[in-house]
Each structure stands twice: as C-alpha cells, then as structure tokens.
Amino acid sequence: MNTGEEKKKMRVIMVMFDSLNRNMLNPYGGNLAATPNFNRLAEHSVTFDNCYAGSLPCMPARRELHTGRYNFLHRSWGPLEPFDDSMPELLNHSGIHSHMVTDHYHYFEDGGATYHTRYRTWEGFRGQEGDAWKGVVSPDQIPEGYRNRCDGVADNWEHNWVPQDFVNRSYMETEEKQPQSLTFEAGCSFIRTNHGADQWYLQIETFDPHEPFFSQDKFKKLFQDPYNGGVYDWPDYRKVDERDTPEEILHLRAEYAALLTMCDEKLGEVLDLLDEYGMWKDTMVIVNTDHGFLLAEHGQWAKCHCPFYNEVARIPLFIWDPVTGARGIHADSLVQTIDLPATILAQFGLRLPEDMEGVPLQPVLADGGKAVRKAALYGIFGGQINCTDGRYVYMRSPVDTDTGIYQYTLMPTRHGGRRAFIENGELEKMTLSEGLSFTKGLPVLRIPYEKEVGQAKYDTMLFDLENDPGQEHPIHDEEAERYMAALMAERMKENGCPEEIFMRYGLKK
Fold this sequence. Notes:
It is built from 13 helices and 19 strands. The protein is of the alpha/beta class. The longest helix has 31 residues, at 246-276.
C-alpha cells in the first residue's frame, strides 16, 4: 500500500509485558519490589496515570494492539480477522520493517495463529506456562506437595496443563534458558544489528510476569517469605477463601515480586542499548501491558472471573517521544490500548484506517492534560461492560439474560489450548450475518455464544474514584449512573456494537 505520505525518520520500540500490575511499580507508588529500571524509564518518558485496558484477556488485547478497535463487544478470544487492519502489516506495506520477538505462546495456538505473521519478521520462544513444548511421556516432574492450579477441574486439557509446565521448567535450570531471557536477548540482538538503520518497528513481548510466577533463586531470595509449604506459584482464578492462609497470600506476592524483579532487570538491558547507541534522539519507546492482576485485593485472585477492578483494568504505560521530548512527567489524560497502534502509525507519518477507534497520543505527550476521549470502555465478552470517565467507574451487568449474544467472526476458533475450534454444537446454529460496520462489507458468521460467563453474575456497581480510589465502597447515585450509562451507550454505538448487546444490558442505542 502506497499512502503517498512522506515517512518521518523514526524507529519505534515497544516492550510489552503480560499481567503487569501498575500498583506494584515504583513510578506508580508501588513498593512490592524495587524496580530501578522502571524508575529510570519514568525519568526519561511520560508516565500515564489514566491508561485503561480495553478488551480482556490476552488475545483480545492483542487484537486491539493491531486494529485500534474494541474486540469484546462482538467476539471473544480469537485470531485476527480477514477484514482487520493490522498495524504492523500497515507498516510493512509502507516500507517500514516490523519485527516481533515473543515468548507469548498463545500467538501460536488455534485461538491466535494470525497475529505473528502480520510482522515482516518474527522470532518465538517456547516453554511458558503449559505450552505443549518438550515431549515427555507420563511426566512425573510435579513436586511433592505442589498446590495444583487446576484443582477440581475435570477438563483433560486443563488436567495436563500443570504436568506440562513442570516438564518445561525442567529444561530451564538457569535464568539464561528461561523464555523471557531468550526473548529479550533476541530483541537486544535486533537492536544491535539494526541500530544504524532507519524506519523500523520492534516489539519485544514477554509472557512474564503472567502466572505461573516461575523465577530463579537469584530473585526469590530478595524477598522475605514466611511460607514453608510445597511449590505454590500459580494462583487459581477464584475468590480468596478458607484455603488461603495469610502466609500463602504473602508467598504468592513474593513470587510475583521475584518475577517482576526479573522483568525490571530485562527492561534495563534494552535501556542500556538505547544509551549505548544514542538512540533516544530518534526512537520512540513504549512500555506497556495488556492488563493487570489481582493478588488477593478485593478478595480475588487473578482476573476474568471477577469484576475488573483498577488493579486489572488501569494499566501502566510509559512513552518516550523524541519529537516532543517530554520526560519525567505524568499525564492524566484518559487513554487506552486502542490508542497505541494509532500512535505508532502517526509516528511514522502514516494515515490511520477509517475503522480505527484509537487516537494518536502525540498531543498528550506534548500536553499531559489534553483530553482525547470522554469515556473509555473495557470488558470481557459476555461479562460486565465497564466504563470510566476518569472519575467514575461503572460496571454494568446484564439485565436481560434471556437475550442471547453472538460472536461475529470469520475465524471460528477461540481459547481452549491445542484444539480451540468453536464446538460443532454451536456451529450448527450459526447463520450468515450481513456484517458489522467495520467488516469491510463482508458477511460474517453469527454464532450463538452459549458458555456461561461468571463475571456477568456480579452486581452492577458504580465507584467514585475521587472519594474512593481503592474501589472499596460502591455508591448509589442515580444521576451519576444515568450519566455513565449514557456515556457507555454512546461509546458502544461508536464501536458498531450489535443490537442484542444493547438489549441484554438494558441500554438504549
């Protein structure tokens, strides 16, 4: 694609972590662990105080990173679609080399599969979580006394997830062999090779500090830990209950802190190269995550099954822009993941696709208080729809559960491991829809979504962050709720949200 625009002289590096809780980072006031390299980054960039996720969890967030559009209102976890505009692919078509290095193994499963090939070149590293990597028949690597993350789960794939993870760990006896280390070394190698070149985008993306919180003793010994039980570094997705002793809660936080310390150290390796090669003068740097993670806050572990409190939804974001030169400051503008592809395209002087909802953040980098939107949406398909205007957070649950919801897609796969096709029973009920506003005139499959989404069972809640920043006390304010519901419906309409979603949540289109 030849856009006709004059390309700016520029490089962009994104360093992306998974499940990075901003409240644990020193620049955001966290003290769980020392994060000197995040501090160093904050001194050389703009720290965003009101950045929110959009679609959760992993792959929905990555679809937004490509398309700059909300995913969760019309589809669950899945691949890029044929009608999607992919940011790295647009860069390639304009003569800008895109390269990704990652250990995020969901890219390479049925429910991902089409993302990594949008980059001009890419490298993948195996072994995170239960990745089906090293082949050991009848594995016996699970340590005695291990707290089983999948306790009580009958599904066979889940049952084999934990044994496979310990098979993988047996091949990672040193830090250098861990996937995160290999990922950052590959990213640094790309920088060393291409620091003198122009017009490229590099995405260094690690699965860490996503659970399980596996790290070496070098990092673990930095933290006091009263726990003396079996291996326990993989919290389940559930409420905190009688199984969780205070010692175990502190232990899991220490395990997260150890892995976070490793992440901070690897980030420092990238910053060192930017210093060594003098790249700050012509290289935009973005450091971000897809979502946060609950470590027993609000009486919850992890994400997805519970309301998206700010520990999950409000995420860290740091951007250095050599054009504006803003550094060492905080921006309070309300921004989201969908803004990042727009920002990257704009940095190279490229035109944004018509269907992109995100906006370039360069004006915010020049003026940290500049507003780019009135409200931000975020959520998981079929669960609560969430909206914030920066002061209020409104979590709206379905009010009409008899109204069914549908996935609109041409790619009938989803999360579920090695074989993640949407089940035949659901596909038998699919129809052909004329398409949505952003499907480029293509008809799409309309597939009934019949899985239960536990998050949708929580009560609708409204929080006033000005008076309750920790979201401890939902308020009852009819006027504020009407205001937030109207903002929510307005953003949903702008997204091209299907009619039945408005009906299910009791909102006027």
